[in-house]
Amino acid sequence: MRILFCGTPEFSVPPLQQLHAAGHDILAVFTQPDKARGRGQQQQKTPVKQAAEALGITVHQPDGMKAVDTQTLIADYQADLMVVVAYGVIIPQAVLDLPRLGCWNIHASLLPRWRGAAPIHRAILAGDQETGVCIMQMEAGLDTGPVYLCEKTAIDSQDTAGKLHDRLSEMGARTIVKAVQMAENNTLPPAKAQNDTQATYAHKLKKVESNIDWQQPATDIERQIRAFTPWPGSQSKINGETLKIWQAEVVNKDNNTVPPGTVVYADSDTLIIQCGRHQLKLLEVQRAGKKRMAVGPFMRAKADWYSQ
Question: Do 14 and 170 touch, CB atoms closer than 8 A?
């Protein structure tokens, strides 16, 4: 199969690598332009660009795909298929129509649930029991196209967005290779239209969402902590100090004599906060400018929080 590949972040790397390993002709890779990152603001290659160069694949980094010369470049490749994985660029209909089989997208949810930019985080945040990846025929709407294949995975009670991201990336790689192989063998089932009435939208994450609202139930806050790990994290001011909370567990108790956000128990190994319903036992925290640490060592440095 003659394939053009479009992707940018780490999530896109395994699908590129596995399509290449499966023997397909990756004609070229399209990825977003290099950006200045970090304290030194030095230009850094996207993860997909780094992976493509390691495989000896030609890389293009246009500013979008609306320009005539970019569309001519794509047309000249005469691709059978364009595979798009977290590219981060709107692809116009003129480009979607160019490859013989059109453009397929690997989306990290069980469509039509969680269309949009942050499906992994929103699935955890909502308490979904399962998620997965879908191979979708792209069309002009946002993640609205018909679906060829889906693979499911359970969302474990210990899954963070980071863990689920990595698992779904590998699942997406396996599933796209399977779908392309089926297309070559003429065994790929027709794509099924999504039921728009069941669609939900996964809004892009915002930094402001990292602030913990202790009025919420402990179960919701615990899910938030996992959904926002590694980014944007979850933070709150506790006893006057701003802490990021990286891991916690629900305690099925309540102390109705104190407002949510109050420390209800603390000792040299333990820190428990009252929530809107039930309590949250903090397990891993981070002070501003410091490294993440287990709550025990943190509390032993905070004896004034519990000493009588």
Answer: yes
What is the reported pLDDT for 41?
A: 76
Helix residue spans in the chain (DSSP H): 13-21, 47-54, 68-76, 93-96, 119-125, 161-184, 218-227, 295-300
What is the token pair recorded at 238?
């506790």
Distance CA 139, CA 21 (A): 28
- Identify the pLDDT of residue 131: 98
pTM comes to 0.95
Residue 186 structure tokens = 């003429």
Note the pLDDT tens digit of each residue in 221-247.
Answer: 999 999 999 999 999 999 999 999 999
Return the closest-CA partner of residue 141 out of 188, 96, 80. 96
Q: Which amino acid is at 220?
A: D
Q: Are 139 and 196 in contact (CB under 8 A)?
A: no
| pLDDT over 80 at 308, yes or no | no
In the block, residue with structure tokens 């959904």:
227
Rounded average pLDDT over 194-223: 97
Is omega for the bond preceding 119 within 30 degrees of 0, making it cis?
no
Helix (H) or strand (E) holding 81: strand 81-85
Q: Report which DSSP code applies to 49.
A: H
Tell me which long-range contacts 20-25 makes (C-beta under 8 A, separation of at least 24).
20/55, 20/57, 22/177, 22/180, 22/181, 24/180, 25/1
Q: Which two tokens stand for residue 278?
A: 């039930």
How far apart are the C-alpha atoms of 232 and 248, rounded to whole Å? Answer: 16
Question: In the prediction, which pLDDT does 289 show?
Answer: 92
Summarised one tens digit per residue, pLDDT across range 109-131 is 999 999 999 999 999 999 999 99
Q: How many other β-carbons are positioned within 10 Å of the β-carbon of residue 216? A: 16
Report the alpha-carbon distance of residue 171 to residue 132 in Å, rounded: 8
**How many residues make up the chain in this entry?**
308
